[in-house]
Write a structure and sequence with these properties.
By secondary structure, the chain is mainly β. 0% of the residues lie in helices and 53% in strands. The protein contains no helices and 11 strands.
Length: 116
């Protein structure tokens, strides 16, 4: 079955960096576009970044452009989110997402806290 497992969240000071990872299994990862979403308390879940399958073309939400980078390693079935220049407003639970066989799948999420 499809499984997505995020890791790499934690506490970071404003201006700091984190790299999130999402290990995927149960589907043909290399051909599947992947997404990172986030959800802050009291807010709706929002798309952060998208990466296509084999060509690994990336797109970003305006609020993370030039700070976050999404990438993938198809040999490891893993997608990453490198987050730089983190600000308090970036604090949220970050989720990995894949659309497989007509269904949306989500990981359990990883908490990112940005505080001094």
């Amino acid at each position: 079955q499809v499984q997505l497992v995020e890791s790499g969240g934690g506490l970071v000071q404003p201006g700091g960096s984190l790299r999130l990872s999402c290990a995927a299994s149960g589907f043909t990862f290399s051909r599947t576009p992947m997404n990172w979403y986030r959800q802050a308390p009291g807010k709706e879940r929002e798309l952060v970044a998208f990466i296509s399958g084999i060509l690994a073309l990336a797109k970003y939400a305006d609020f993370v452009k030039n700070r976050f980078t999404i990438s993938r390693d198809n040999a490891k079935n893993t997608v990453y989110l490198q987050m730089n220049s983190l600000q308090p407003e970036d604090a949220a639970v970050y989720y990995c997402n894949a659309h497989v066989g007509g269904m949306d799948y989500w990981g359990q999420g990883t908490q990112v806290t940005v505080s001094s």
